[in-house]
Structures are given as C-alpha cells and as structure tokens.
Design brief:
Layout lengths: L1 H6 L9 E8 L4 E7 L11 H14 L6 H13 L6 H13 L9 H9 L2 H12 L3 H11 L5 H11 L4 H4 L13 E3 L14 E7 L5 E8 H53 L14 H28 L1 H40 L2 E2 L5 E8 L2 E5 L2 E5 L2 E10 L2 E11 L3 H24 L1 H4 L3 H17 L7 E9 L4 E7 L5 E4 L2 E4 L21 E4 L4 E6 L6 E5 L5 E3 L5 H8 L4 H11 L1 E2 L3 E8 L12 H15 L3 H14 L4 H13 L3 H14 L4 H14 L2 H14 L4 H13 L3 H11 L8 H15 L1
Parallel strand pairs: 6-10
Antiparallel strand pairs: 1-2, 1-5, 3-4, 4-5, 7-21, 8-9, 10-11, 11-12, 12-13, 13-16, 14-15, 14-17, 17-21, 18-19, 18-20
Helix pairs in contact: 4-8, 10-11, 12-13, 13-15, 16-17, 18-19, 19-20, 20-21, 21-22, 22-23, 22-24, 23-24, 24-25, 25-26
Length: 767
C-alpha cells in the first residue's frame, strides 16, 4: 500500500505496478498515467467510486469543532456531491438528524464509524442488483423505496437525485477510505478467450483534491507475495516444533523430572520414619518452592513429635493442672449463677405482691393465670420471672363499684421484662391506692379515669427513651351493669366467651405500646356490655407464639394463626389452666404467658323484667296524645307510666326525649342523667344529656358528659360542637377554639362554625 502511494507522485515505478490511472475532477475524465497491461479495467463502470472516495477523504479530514460548524461543513460537502451519491447522502443526513444535540457523536471519526456497519449490507445489495436486468431493477426499486429502514432511506435518496434504473446499480458502489484494497478485472469472458488479467488496486486522493489516483498491481503477483510469506511462516512453525520436541527431554528432565523425583524420594524417607531428610534446592522456581516447603514441613513434624513426646511424659501433671483450672472456673460460674438467681429471686419477691387479685365484688369475678418462660432455683425456692403481669382491684367512681384490671407484657425476657413489669405494677398500684383515698379521683367518670391512668403510665415509660416498651389491656368493669371500659395498647385482641363460643370483641389496633416515642393522636375508650354468665378473657402474645416444630432448615416453626387460641378456649370450656394444658398439647411456649378472665354473674336482679299492664296503658295513652300533637298530655301519661313501671330505663328515655322536644331542658337533663346511670353504654343518650345540660345552663355537667362521649367517639362532630359551645359559655375560649378547629374538618357544611371560630379568636386577641 505504501508502494502504491509513492507511485502516484513518483516516476520510478515498481515492476509490480500494472497501471496508474486517475480521475480528473476538473475535466471529468479518466487519465492513464502509466500502463503496463494489455487490458485496463473499464473505469467508466467505477467513476462514481472514485468520487465516493474523494467525499470520504473530505469527510474524514474535517477538523474537530463545535456541532454547528461540523454540521455546516458536512452539508457543504454533500451539496457538491454527485447524483449517484444520493443513497449515501440520505444516510448521512439521517445520521445528523438522529444525533442532534449529541455533541460527542458529531465528529468525523463517529461519522465514518457509522458507515462501517452498512458496508457488507450495501455490497450485498450491489451484487444482487448486478444480477438483475432493467425490469428486475425497477421491480426491486418499487419493493424497497417505501421501507422504513436504512435500505428504504438509501433507495429514496437515489430516487430523489433522479437516478434512472440503468445507472441505479452504480449508486451502490463502495463508499470507503482511499487506502482500502480493491479488486479489478473483467468478470465475464468466453471459453475461447484467454483468461483476463486481474488486479489488486489502491486509491489515493491528491492533496489538491482534484485528482483521485488508482494504482493497480497484478493479482497473481500479489498471490505469489502472500505465498512467499506463507512458506516462510511454515518453515518457522516446523523449526519451532522440532526445537521444542527435541529440547523437551533435556529441559524437562533437568528442570522438572529430576527435582520431582528428589521430592518423591524425600517423601519416601519421611514416610519410613527418617525425619532428618532434607532436599537440596537448585533453582528458585515452583519446584524449588515445593522443596523448601517440604523441608519446613519435615522440620515442623520433627519439632511437633518432640513436643508430643514431652507432653506424653508430662500428661498426668497437665491433666491435674487442667482439672484444677476447670474446677476453679466452674466454682466462679456457679458463684455468679447463684448471685444472678439471687437477683432473680429478689425481683420476683418485688413483683409478686403487685401481681395480685384484690377484686372482691358480688357480681364480678376475676381470675389470673401466668407462666413465665424463665424458671430458676434459689436455695430451697423454685420460682419464675418474666415480663408478664396481671393486676386487679376494687375501686369506686362516682358512687359506683368497679373492678379495675390490667394485663401487661413488658418488652424483653427474664430480667429486662421483669423490670418493665415491676415499673408498671408499681405505678398502676399507686394509681389504684390514690383513687381509693382521693375524693377528687373518685369523682371521675370511668372514661376519664382510664384516660388519665393511660397517660400517666405512658409518660413513665416514655422517659426510658424507647428502651422499655409494654403492651397492655387495661380497663374497668361496672359491677352493676356489666359494662366494660377498656384500652388496648398493641396487645392481642380481647376475647368474649359466651355460651361455649369464643370470639374477638376488637377488630383493629388503635394504640402503640406504652413508651413508644413520638406517638400522637386522640385517646379513645372502648366499651362492651357483658351479659349474665359472660366471660372476658385477655392474654399476652404468649398464647399465640407456640412452637409447632422445626422447619426443614432447622429454624423454629412458630404459630402465626391468632384465631387458634379461640379453639383452645372453647375446648377448655373457658378455664384458664385447662387452656394452658391444651396449648402444651399443641406445642411449646416460646414466650411468657399470662391470662386474665373476667366473669359477670349478677345476683338479686331479674333480667326478665316485664312492664306492668297499668304502665302499658299509660304509655299507650301517651303515645296516642303524642300522635295528636298534644305534647303536655303525652308527657303527663308517660310520667304515670314511668312511676308505675318503677322507672324502667326504656320509658325513662322516651320521657326524657319528650321533655327535650318540649324544650323543657332541666327536666329532660334530669331524666337523661337518671337513664344513663342505669344504661351507661348508651353513648347517644350521654350526648343528649350533655346537650340538655347546656341548654339548661348547667355547663359544667355538659362538659363532663361531652368529654365522656369524646373519649368514646373522638370524631362525633355534633358532640364536639356542643362541647365547644359549653366552653364558650364558661369563657374557656382557648379550649373552645381548639375544639372548633377540630369540628370544622368534620362538619364542613355547617356555616355557623366559622362564625364561632372568629368569635373565639376575637376574644383570645383581646385577652
């Protein structure tokens, strides 16, 4: 290729050169500069290939610059291109369009690289077109011009340049670098003709860009040249093979076989008991490294054997020394265990009086069962310790007897859990004792007492910064009515056992564990009405976390079905200890277990009370008067019915609603207070009593009752609005404003709330 390049500018030509011809851009003609062949290639068939090579030369020599300059230079070159370059021109413009904004792609190197992927495809289609006649070429054009791939783009580019079917094939001539090897010669000749001469040629562009040279070499001489190189390569390969073959025995004998034989001999000596064997190292290669390692190994074996002999001789002394050390360590461990068990025992003594059942009510019975995971022995005592605790005691609120209860599970096992149980037990016990001696605490409604207790317990555990958390169910049972007020803080759901069937009384978790930092929200109290002979059973998560066996990978298979315990209770007929034994039949406990059972068995009260006939007559008259809109007559008849029926709750409620309709708020308030004292679970009636109290001017009672409703139903908008109005009347503007901001999000259609908010804000600004 270098020889061809020199021939285009020199007059001393190599004998291998057969011709030198060039295309003159100015005269648009071929000129033969040097010819040593009888049959030149038909350059008329390749003129567009010469021009393609010139365009390649120009594109590849565009200097690196910004994208806009590069694009302009490319467009300038394309504008001056010949018509048969139309296909390549279309591909070039498509490349520029696809890479708009991609600065790293807009350079001559990337552009030239882009065309390398099309070289084989274009050559394939060129050969295909050469085999077609004019009609076949026209059919091929129609088939491919509308394709949406590169070939359709290429064909459309040639059509746009108005290249006819006769010249169409030339549009697929190569677009390559000038240094690319090309092959020339006539492809078709008759048997009678002599075989034409074939050439290998290279193109070069004159620096003036007006001449494109092609220098042709004899193809047969090119083959002879390649043959000479092949012969030389064959001689080299054969020589190398002979050298390696004959040198193998000498080289490997001295470098590998003999040293390996020495290593094997040394191994035999060591195996026979000669630990003084040593290998000589001749060369520091892999075999030398192996020999050095062998010597080190033998030395280590010799030293080890000597030490083993020494140990054997002193074995009895060593055994006695080791036995003495083990006895001393065991004594220390036993001492530490005794101290630990002592700590466990003292802690269990502190927890035991707290975890006690002090309920002594006629209608309410509370039972405990607890089994802690950690058991220990201290002196003659066998005890257990853990984080579960049960507590229950009598208290009196607003003149009514209640059973206060708590079932809690502190985070952690053994000592950590016991610490949490000790803290909550101590605080809850102090709250119970304070309630028993404080008239102020006894004046709370049950909802308010539970809220205050819950907040106080949470504040205590929150001070531990998340290192001590506890789940619990805490509540109150009204001895007279069987109403249960309770709070569940991330504890397993409470279970109702009624008529031999067990079921959950909760379906969602409202509170996180006590001590959880950053918890915000509204505290709500749940209520549930027990029927005679019902039992409410509360337990820690130890009732669910039963080990059922082992998984194939050896990990424990722990029960995940929280409803399993319902079936256990039904099978145990609600008995706690029997339920525990049933759990053991299913699997092994993996956590502390505590159960608390509340039974309500009222005595001395007839729950099948029948309204007397006389009261029914009065009620019927009152109902008829009500229909005739004779409100005073209706109230008079219903008053008689209430007295005749010994102030039966249902009649009391109907009478209170009549007084409320008649806007006799003081009388309606009194009757509603009497009614909710008998039926405290009726939240709607508590709200009506609060409303009637506000209308009657008794704002303090209205607020107390409204707060009860709020604790049960935090988002009851009508109650919040009534509560806010009561605070306004008592001039508690700050509290009223806070409630109004809550209720405006609930009762969005109530236009009066905005006026009340403005009123409270004005009062607060004045203050």
């Amino acid at each position: 290729m270098q020889e061809a390049s020199m021939a285009s500018i020199s007059t001393n030509y190599s004998p291998d050169i057969r011709y030198i011809s060039y295309w003159d851009v100015n005269s648009n003609s071929f000129i033969n500069k040097y010819v040593e062949t009888k049959e030149l290639p038909n350059f008329a068939d390749y003129n567009s290939e010469f021009l393609n090579t010139l365009i390649w030369y120009k594109l590849s020599n565009i200097k690196d610059s910004d994208a806009a300059t590069f694009r302009n230079e490319v467009e300038s070159i394309l504008a001056s291109s010949h018509p048969l370059f139309g296909g390549y021109k279309a591909l070039l413009r498509n490349y520029l369009e696809e890479n708009t904004g991609k600065i790293e792609q807009l350079n001559s190197k990337s552009l030239i690289s882009y065309f390398s992927g099309f070289e084989r495809k274009i050559k394939y289609n060129h050969n295909k077109l050469l085999s077609l006649d004019e009609a076949g070429i026209q059919e091929w054009i129609e088939k491919n011009k509308d394709k949406e791939d590169w070939l359709g783009n290429f064909t459309s580019g040639l059509i746009a340049e108005k290249v006819d079917s006769k010249e169409f094939t030339k549009g697929f001539l190569p677009f390559q670098a000038s240094s690319t090897r090309r092959y020339r010669g006539r492809q078709e000749f008759s048997k009678d003709e002599a075989t034409p001469e074939y050439f290998t040629s290279f193109m070069f562009v004159d620096p003036s860009k007006t001449k494109i040279y092609e220098v042709g070499f004899s193809y047969s001489q090119y083959q002879n040249f390649i043959d000479e190189i092949g012969r030389l390569f064959t001689i080299i390969v054969i020589g190398a093979t002979l050298l390696i073959g004959f040198g193998y025995r000498y080289f490997f004998s001295n470098a590998l076989i003999e040293p390996l034989g020495n290593v094997i001999e040394g191994l035999k000596q060591v195996n026979s008991g000669n630990l003084n064997a040593k290998l000589s190292i001749k060369v520091e290669d892999e075999i030398g490294f192996l020999a050095r390692s062998f010597n080190s190994m033998v030395e280590s074996i010799r030293i080890g054997k000597a030490k083993l002999q020494e140990y054997a001789e002193q074995l009895e002394v060593k055994v006695e020394e080791r036995t003495s050390e083990l006895k001393q360590t065991l004594t220390e461990v036993q001492s530490l265990k005794t101290q630990q068990d002592g700590d466990y025992f003292l802690t269990s003594l502190l927890i035991k009086p707290l975890s006690s059942n002090h309920v002594d009510l006629q209608n309410v019975r509370v039972e405990f069962f607890s089994k802690q995971k950690k058991t220990f022995s201290f002196r003659k005592y066998k005890e257990e310790i853990g984080g579960d605790i049960n507590m229950a005691s009598n208290i009196r609120l607003r003149g009514r007897k209640f059973a206060a209860f708590l079932n809690a599970d502190a985070m952690g096992k053994s000592m950590q859990g016991a610490g949490g149980a000790l803290v909550i037990g101590s605080v809850f016990e102090s709250i119970l004792e304070r309630t028993k001696v404080s008239r102020e605490a006894q004046n709370y409604f049950p909802e308010r007492w539970l809220k205050n207790t819950f907040i106080e317990l949470h504040k205590v555990f929150e001070s531990f910064n998340g290192s001590m958390l506890i789940s619990l169910v805490m509540g109150l049972v009204d001895e007279a009515t069987g109403i249960v007020y309770f709070i569940n803080a991330e504890h397993p759901f409470s279970i109702l056992y009624r008529d031999g069937k067990a079921s959950f009384i909760e379906d969602e978790m409202l509170f996180r564990k006590l001590g959880t930092s950053g918890v915000q929200g509204v505290i709500s109290i749940r209520t549930f009405e027990l029927q005679p002979n019902d039992a409410l059973i509360i337990g820690s998560d130890g009732r669910d976390d039963i080990v059922l066996g082992l998984h194939p990978d050896g990990t424990r298979n722990i029960n995940e079905d929280e409803t399993m315990f319902l079936g256990v209770l039904e099978k145990a007929d609600g008995d706690l200890e029997t339920a525990y034994n049933e759990l053991l039949n299913i699997g092994e406990l993996s956590d502390d277990l505590s159960l608390l059972k509340i039974s309500w068995n009222p005595s001395g009260k007839d729950y099948t009370y029948e309204i007397p006939q006389e009261a029914k007559v009065f009620y019927s008259r009152g109902k008829d008067a009500w229909k005739r809109n004779q409100l005073s007559d209706a109230i008079e008849e219903l008053e008689k019915a209430v007295e005749s029926a010994e102030r039966e709750p249902a009649l009391l409620k109907k009478l209170s609603l009549m007084y409320l309709k008649a806007r006799n708020f003081p009388r309606s308030k009194d009757l509603l207070l009497e009614y909710i004292d008998k039926v405290p679970q009726d939240t709607e009636s508590i709200y009506l009593a609060s409303y009637a109290s506000r209308k009657a001017g008794d704002y303090g009672i209205s607020i107390d009752l409204g707060e009860r409703v709020r604790l049960r139903l935090p988002y009851y908008g009508e109650n919040l609005l009534n509560l806010a109005k009561s605070h306004i009347l008592l001039k508690n503007m700050d509290r009223a404003h806070s409630l109004l901001m809550e209720v405006k999000e609930i009762l969005k259609e109530n236009q009066g709330i905005a006026k009340l908010i403005q009123f409270t804000e004005r009062k607060l600004h004045k203050a």
